[in-house]
Structures are given as C-alpha cells and as structure tokens.
Amino acid sequence: MTRVRAAVLEAFNEPLAIRSYPHPDDPAAGEALIHVDIAGSAEPMCTCGWASLLSLCEHHGARIAGRIEKLGAGLDRDWLGEPLREGDRVTWASSISCGECFYCRVKGQPTRCLTRKAYGISYRASDAPHLRGGYAEKILLRAGTAIFRIPDAVPSEALSEPAAR
Ligand SMILES: [Zn+2]
Predict the structure, then answer these.
(1) Residue 19 lies in a domain
(2) Which end of the chain is least crowded, N or C, by CB within 10 Å?
C-alpha cells in the first residue's frame, strides 16, 4: 500500500470526503502504526476549525480499535505493562494530556488540559504525517499515547458501541 485513504471533514456541515495520503515511513521511537479495524463516534480528521469544535462537542473518547502494523523503537509494552507485538489488537486513549497543568493536576480533568492533543480533532489531515484520526485505513499514534492491548476474548466491535449520551 503506497497511499492510505482517510475520510476527512473539510467543511462544516458537509459530508466527509475520501482523501488519500502517502503511506507513512516506519514509526519513529515510541510511535505505533495501526491498521484501523473499526472506528465509531465523531472522530474524523478535521481540516477546519469549525469542524473541530463540532466534533469536540460530540466527542466521547476513544472508540477506535485496530491491529499493530509496526512498532517504533522502545515501544514494547502497553499502558498497563502488557507486552505489545505487531499484530496485536489494541485501542488507545484519544488524546495525550500533559499531566502538569491546572486541569490535569488540580482539577483532575485531563480532557480540559491546556495542551491536550486529541486524535481526529487537534490535527489537520492536510499536515504530515496526515494519519491522526480514526476514520482512516491506518493511524499513526504519537509517542506517549496510552495504548491498551485488547484481550483475545473481547471482540473489537465491543469497543465501538456508542457510549452513553
Ligand atoms: Zn494538562
């Protein structure tokens, strides 16, 4: 696969557009390239600010699951310390919070972290490496993402059920 397709929100109130992007290079240290099996909720990759606000409102957390295609150097355990291997099914936290700001430390509300970056919301699909949202064939997870290996007994579909609204 030399190009990777993604469904991208390019304009407010418009349908998602299918775009393709260059296949990413091998993941850098700590990163993971994931083959997306399933993605629910409003986590397309945004290319406009209004859409970001919209999907932020509809956002209820990580509901994406996939299989590890490639692991970057040094990434061999999930967030709970379980071994990670290529081919494993995983899910992950939808954002990376700093852990140090007022909201992270004092308020205990990491979703309001001042420097939080959420997949599908805080990144523009037009900016390299492009694949930072769930509505794509692949997603490239940043170093520091809380990745969780999915036990074999749990079907991926179970993770994509809409959360309580
Ligand atoms: Zn923070």
Answers:
(1) no
(2) C
